[in-house]
Amino acid sequence: MTALAALAGAAAAQQGDRPMRVVVPFAAGSAPDIVARTLAEPMAAELGAQVVVENMPGAGGLLGVTHVANAAPDGRTVVLSGDAALVMPDPNGVRRYDPQRDLAPISRLVATPNVLVVGGDTTVRDFTDWLAWLRQRPAGRVSYASAGVGTSSHRAGELLAKMTGVEMVHVPSNQSPLPDVVAGRVDLFFANVATAMPLVREGRVRALAVSSLQRTAIAPELPTLAESGLPGFEAIAWFALLAPTATPPEMLARWQRAARGALATTAVKARLQSLGIEPLGESPEELRATIERESRKWAGLIR
Fold first, then answer.
1. Which of 96, 101, 197, 228 has its CA 20 to 30 A from that of 183?
2. Whole domain around residue 263: which residue ranges?
3. pTM to 2 decimals?
4. Is residue 8's pLDDT more than 50?
5. Average pLDDT for residues 170-192, to the nearest whole number?
């Protein structure tokens, strides 16, 4: 037994020299990228190895998640996925993995509201007046941007169209659409609050409301859409950590402990909450239940 323990210890030490990898399926500077880079260093202490963040944007998050679903299940590669890649239906067979079969849940890390932003030179000051202006536009002349098909910004735009009866053209992007809003190339965007509020404070875009059921502490002056005449409107973003499905349980447990421990530190909590990002640190079982519940919720809207 002593010899076996020594061999196991040597193997673990050798593995510890190799970095652990967190794949982020979005561009640098995006909300999930901020979360990953905020957690990387404190997680490394628990994991006993350097944690490297690798951006792999494309297809609304599908590219990076597909990469990890097909990665070696050795516990050294995980994905910090957005909710869309895990809960959206796939009627056209575009997705090359099954979220509940090919990925092992580790933790739903954080949740964050989106904020409805329009151009900074928009003359209206609140959502009610802006909606009245929107309804005067010719059918099909209103455009809304998203971070990709199925993302929370896309779902929020579709939910807005459904609840207001305004016909809108969807303009998806693999990069941040905020520059398009600033330049007036699109009329509106449900931007992540962490990336939108700096531009709001600079006056480059105007924020009208948030997409959560409660106001956000980062901008408490902004009303929710639910209190602005659209009762029940909710379309938040959340981000979770997952691994290839055959990853050893002990490695999944190490990642979960590392993530929960990092999220509990004062510095990490303060950093995330200052950006309007709420730390969660859910268990694998809670994440699995969230994926199942959200999949049912959004399937109805997509149909």
1. 228
2. 25-111+236-302
3. 0.83
4. no
5. 92
- 45-67 pLDDT, tens digit per residue, is 999 999 999 999 988 889 999 99
Q: 6 in a domain, yes or no? A: no
Give the mean pLDDT of the chain. Answer: 90
Q: At what angle do helices 127-135 and 152-164 cross, to 10 degrees?
A: 70
Instruction: Work out the number of other CB atoms within 10 angstroms of the CB of residue 184.
Output: 12
- Give me the phi and psi of 239, to 5 degrees please: -135, 140
d(CA 203, CA 281): 34
Q: How far is the C-alpha of 52 from the C-alpha of 209, rounded, in Å?
A: 35
Residue 279's φ and ψ, nearest 5 degrees, are -65, 140
Q: Are residues 104 and 241 in the same domain?
A: yes
Please give the pLDDT value at position 299: 81
b/e string for 27-65 if b means 16 or more Cβ within 10 A? Answer: beebbbbbbbebbbebbbebbebebebebbbebbbbbbb
- 11 is a domain residue: no
- Select from 202, 228, 254 the last residue of a domain: 228
* Residue 242's CATH number: 3.40.190.150
Q: Are residues 166 and 213 in the same domain?
A: yes
Q: Tokens 């982020």 sit at which residue? A: 24
More confident residue, 141 or 107: 107
Picking from 228, 252, 267, the residue at the C-terminal end of a domain is 228
- Residue 223: predicted pLDDT: 97
Q: Check residue 303 and give its pLDDT.
A: 65
